[in-house]
Amino acid sequence: MITWRRLNERDFPMLREWLRQPHVARWWNHETSMEAVERDFGPATRGEEPSADLLALFDGRPLGLVQRSRLADYPDYLDELASIVDVPEGTVTIDYLIGDPGQVGRGLGTAMIRSIVERTWAELPEATCLLVPVSAANRASWRALEKAGLRRVGVGDLEPDNPIDDPVHYLYRVDRPNR
């Protein structure tokens, strides 16, 4: 059972440790000092940023993080994605990670993605679809998206999170049911 709550500042030490895990660091390529975590996650936590950082809990224990945002709130990013695929009004995007390496490879990423899709439809009535770019090299991530019901709708070059990666990204989409 996956439940959700907003990330808060008390979670930052745990998030810092997650960002240091090799399976996360490979794709997130994030600074891991407490100052960097506070700088990059603090604004959303305090409501100063329009995105939401959501902590996924599996059986009540922290499992992972999902960052969810409306693309309209980030026009440059919207334009970047729109150069590859059609981006309908009301599109939402996510980024995600499983923090504990012991939970990787058990289907929990797929379950987490399914859960956040359902939560998005319930919490954001104006959301028309979810559009998720993922590095083509990150097979585990795009396979989790496919297993969660998203379909590949495009391929194009985007700035990779990790500079060692090729810019090729797959874009996955799921539309709100009954639209």
Automatic annotation (TrEMBL):
UniProtKB keywords: Antibiotic resistance
Source domain of life: Bacteria
Family annotation (Pfam families): Acetyltransf_8
GO molecular function, a single term: N-acyltransferase activity
InterPro entries reported in the protein's UniProt record: Acyl_CoA_acyltransferase, GNAT_dom
Domain (N-acetyltransferase): residue spans on this chain: 2-177
GO process annotations (BP): response to antibiotic
PANTHER family: LYSINE N-ACYLTRANSFERASE C17G9.06C-RELATED (PTHR31438:SF1)
Listed name of the protein: Aminoglycoside N(6')-acetyltransferase
